[in-house]
């Protein structure tokens, strides 16, 4: 799963020399494709909070230097021995959840394999010239979509789809999405609207609330609560700061979908409310190859994505600052030189 770094060749990449620490631009060993692997010339990569967390040492990369970047799309540059599905020059996008090929037999639950690793966390990611992964992690780039659009969806839209699929979201049901602005929250809004749900969102930022309504949300509330609706499904990425109001919003038989905890790692759970209201609590981070393939098909059919800003790869530090201040609504994407 890790690229072969034995070659003396080098590439240019944003990399972390140590952690805690700061990213620097410079030469790192050039990863080569081994058996069953594909080397991709990166055309676009997108930011995630993982890029910030790595600089704090939580999580700490397995080795240094470390190249970040969870969301990656590009062009096949080299094929490892035994790769037959792809050809040099194919335009592709990479699933962030890396698993052994044998895990694909688990279908929708391949992401639950104990050996699952995240691109850009446990191994080198895409904020550099090249990225090497196993061929079974690739899907063909959706037609008629830009590189920036394609790089925006592997983490957030796949995670959102896995949550909403497991939550059995049906047309006409009501969804509350907390903390609109983040990648998964924004993708969940677009997917819920696509599925025919009524969508409401929360944010501390009046401008983000207004923008969400422009994008199709039926209503938007201040995240400090309370929220004047009843919901079948809540998609929460905030955690303890909004948990009580979010759970109170759920109807009997409601489903709480958790994809983050920006306000902290621990919440209090009222057990009688859980069992008397017969609530489900679901969590997800990324998704299976089968789910990723389905989301890729939705992208090809025209599923909207929300891009906050598109910057050149050289402006990665500026992009990090935008993420750090939670200023974005949608994905911040880096375009790479051809």
TrEMBL record:
SUPFAM superfamilies: GroES-like, NAD(P)-binding Rossmann-fold domains. Residues 18-334 form the Enoyl reductase (ER) domain. The keyword NADP applies. It holds the Pfam family ADH_zinc_N. GO terms for molecular function: oxidoreductase activity. Keywords: NADP. The keyword Metal-binding does not apply. InterPro entries: ADH-like_C (IPR013149), ADH-like_N (IPR013154), ER (IPR020843), GroES-like_sf (IPR011032), NAD(P)-bd_dom_sf (IPR036291), Zinc-ADH_QOR/CCCR (IPR051603). This is Unannotated protein.
């Amino acid at each position: 799963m890790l690229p072969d770094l034995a070659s003396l060749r080098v590439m240019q990449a944003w990399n972390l020399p140590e952690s805690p620490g700061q990213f620097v631009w410079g030469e790192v060993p050039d990863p080569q494709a081994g058996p069953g692997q594909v080397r991709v010339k990166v055309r676009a990569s997108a930011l995630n909070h993982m890029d910030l967390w790595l600089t704090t040492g939580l999580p700490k990369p397995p080795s240094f230097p470390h190249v970040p970047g969870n969301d990656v799309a590009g062009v096949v540059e080299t094929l490892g021995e035994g790769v037959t599905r792809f050809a040099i020059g194919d335009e592709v996008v990479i699933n962030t959840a890396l698993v052994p090929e044998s895990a694909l037999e688990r279908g929708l639950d391949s992401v639950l394999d104990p050996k699952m690793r995240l691109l850009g966390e446990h191994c080198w990611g895409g904020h550099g010239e090249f990225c090497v992964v196993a061929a079974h992690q690739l899907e063909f780039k959706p037609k008629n979509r830009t590189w920036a659009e394609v790089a925006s969806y592997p983490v957030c839209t796949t995670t959102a789809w896995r949550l909403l699929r497991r939550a059995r979201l049906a047309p006409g049901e009501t969804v509350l999405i907390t903390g609109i602005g983040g990648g998964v929250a924004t993708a969940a809004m677009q997917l819920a609207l696509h599925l025919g749900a009524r969508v409401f969102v929360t944010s501390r930022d009046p401008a983000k609330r207004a923008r969400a309504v422009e994008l199709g949300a039926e209503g938007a509330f201040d995240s400090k609560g309370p929220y004047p609706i009843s919901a079948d499904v809540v998609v929460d990425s905030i955690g303890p700061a909004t948990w009580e109001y979010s759970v109170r919003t759920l109807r009997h038989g409601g489903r709480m979908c958790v994809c983050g905890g920006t306000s902290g790692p621990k919440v209090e759970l009222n057990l009688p409310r859980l069992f008397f209201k017969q609530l489900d609590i679901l969590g997800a981070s990324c998704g299976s190859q089968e789910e990723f393939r389905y989301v890729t098909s939705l992208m090809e059919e025209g599923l909207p994505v929300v891009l906050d800003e598109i910057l050149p790869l050289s402006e990665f530090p500026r992009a990090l600052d935008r993420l750090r201040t939670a200023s974005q609504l949608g994905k911040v994407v880096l375009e790479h030189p051809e």
